[in-house]
Amino acid sequence: MSDDLQPIPDAEPIRDPGLPEHLYRPQDVDEAEATRTARQISAMFIVAGLLFLGFCVAYFAIDIDATFLGWSAQNFAFGVTLGGGMLLIGVGIIQWAKKLMGDHEMIEMRHPAASSEQDRVAVMKDLNAGIEESGFGRRPMIRNSLLGAMGLLGLPAIVLLRDLGPLPHGQSHTVWKKGMRLVNDVTGTPLKPADIQVGQLINGEPAVVYETNADGDPVLHGSELLAVKAKAAIIVVRMRPEDVTPDKGKENWGVDGILCYSKICTHVGCPISLWEQQTHHLLCPCHQSTYDLGDNGKVIFGPAHRPLPQLPLGLDDEGYLIAMSDFPEIVGPSYPELARDQKKLDDKA
Asked: Quick one: three-class SS letters along 105-146?
């Protein structure tokens, strides 16, 4: 190796190309300008916090079925308030970094990947210096307004948890009642025993979802209709009567081997209809909980802890299948609250 190619100890890897003269920002030389900028940034954070509060107000004050310019009024308000608030926080942080945080060039040479103890101490020193230069401690107005806005950002998340559905202890009743017909959930056609073959499974729902008033308008619509259909969804199966082993008190809950169960898995509420007609087993596609519909919907495999709720059936004067009551058991996932409420129902019975 020639002398020209020998490394030079402590030499810079490349020649300093030269940097233009540093230009100071107005906020660096004028404290009044810096104060004015700090107030503008704080105002952004404060408005962001107010928008997050507006999100919560819109959730409770605007009807879920209301419209605005053809859109959902509630969703429009959610987008404006939550999106606007997050935008203001982002813009405020960028302005803070560009106009008020430390502004000077730094050069750092490459070094081995493994850091020495001295390097770690130096890094912590630099981090603390960066925190000091950011003005986070010296500018309480910006700091406090940002922390307040970020704290209020959590409120929309808490409010939206309410949209996961009713609390578990509020699901002990559905719209099913004595005399209500079972209908096919695709065609809306009422079901007769002659329409169901042995081994067949039909997804169904209560006839009330198709009822109309005197003007021909649906009785149920919008979110109310969706909630009713979700909670009252059923499966209707038919097997040979000799394959059914009802528990005591459930001897008359079927009609010629036709049984009706909730479509909602008692584990975490997944809709189920995977039917093994030879074994009379119903399998949940989410976590493989398996129910024996010939044996009162009992769990034979998987994480579910409660049998599938069964709906007692009968026939009306025209020979259509009807419910004889609501589900005696609680419909829904097996949360602790459900176990508590189920015990209350059992005690009353």
From this structure: CCCCCCCCCCCCHHHHHHHHHHHHHHHHHHCCCCCHHHHHHH
